[in-house]
Amino acid sequence: MYNRDNNFNNINNGFQRTQNNRRGYGNQFYNTHDDSKIFNKTFKKPIRRHKKDMIISKLGKRFLNDDSKVAYLKNLKHIDIDSKRLLAKDSTEILDQIVYPKNFQLIQEKRLNDYLQATTVLNIEKTKFLKNFIAKEFPSILQVDPKVNKNWKASFSEDKLLIHKLYERCNAKQHCGINLKPFISSTNLHDTVYISLDLEEYENSSKITEVGITIYDPRENGFYDKNNNGFYHKSIDPFFRTYHIIVKERITQRNKRFIFCKKQESLFNETYILDFKNTHSFLQLIWDRYFNNEVLAANGFKVALVGQSVMGDISSLKKEFNLKENFEFDSRLTNSINVQRKQQNANKRVKVRKPIVNVYDTEKLSRIVLSDSISVKKQLRFLNIPHTALHNALNDSYYTLLSFIKMTNIDSRINMKLDDPMQIFQRWNHLQLLNENTSTVIPLEIAYLLEKEEKLAAFEENGGVKEEESKSVKKLNKLTQQLEFGLPLDVDTYLDIPF
């Protein structure tokens, strides 16, 4: 019988043993850890690459090409937006025909303001309770001067420190009322396209190796009803556009010192392997379709950037790809940036207002909403969002956007009671318990894979694979099919990526 616990211990022992033949791995990680045979074999295996042209037969290509030439829209006399989106090859131009209804904005703003007022009232009451509780249970913490006593925290338990921190948070009022409004307005007005961005860089050169982009567009996730004051009928099934790009010239650059390379572990959609030039063209297309799109603004919509410490990623993108943009990123959420430009026919500089793109940094937001600045992984745990395979660019961008929406959507905030410091206290304690008791249980599918590798190695040592042994391996293959990630496609041009 297969013993999963023993196998797990063997893997751990394999990581901890010291071997002499570390060919090509003279770095920090492999100086302190060692890899089992299975891990080493898997990690060194080249990234799968499939030519997109080889997937579809010649007949299939003709079939798709002939369909693309048919103009289905001309056969409809009365065409609404949904019909156009249904029949169009590319819905971008059709989405740009949608106008954000002002009546709906007024309705949503009233709900938003009522909610923010309620959070202010709740905060006042909770502040009183926290202050009275602290004064009764451990009043000395209220007289502490951190400037005088720098080691004051050592005198109090973690629970007392957390309760005091929640009191200071409530007293500062940054997580409620008008201080919270800039962070959550766009999500609840349904007027903003969110572009979540994440990059992975090579540890030895800081060059970009992966780009992950996840897009949430309210125009694709609901219907603005003109006959009902522009009311927004939100889809019960949220739709995200996901793009995962690996830079072809850097496909062999794989991190292993601080984090493991997860290029192959995209959970959403295909992975596209593009050369540097086409990666630039793809990014410029995204920039032009959303950030540089003046039609969006004219129709009452906005575009915002979402990410974890995302301004660092933007700096890296600008440094390597030099993307053309007619806007300014605003990470302070001031909603107005005056940029000095030099006039063509004058020597003096004048202030010219450029379009702005709000930047929502989930690290900053977690500090306000969750009382501390925490990583994406801890945010996901805190918010009960299932996750895996982090440090893949697309996975990170997707999960970061989920975390952002969860922290800013009124219904999610009410359901999870994110405005109640007592609920925050419970969640922090639960998170601390998870950190202190990390589970060593490995998924059964992975255990099957490990057994498969062991059996194949044993078969090879014995001079081949017998028929009955081959059946056993086939069974393992069938049981582990659900572990498949997105298919890596080697494409010739960014135009091969479906939008």
From TrEMBL:
Pfam families: DEDDh_C. Residues 1-22 are annotated as: Disordered. Residues 193-407 form the Gfd2/YDR514C-like C-terminal domain. GO terms for cellular component: nucleus. InterPro entries: Gfd2/YDR514C-like (IPR040151), Gfd2/YDR514C-like_C (IPR048519), RNaseH-like_sf (IPR012337). Residues 1-13 have a biased composition (Low complexity). SUPFAM superfamilies: Ribonuclease H-like. This is Gfd2/YDR514C-like C-terminal domain-containing protein.
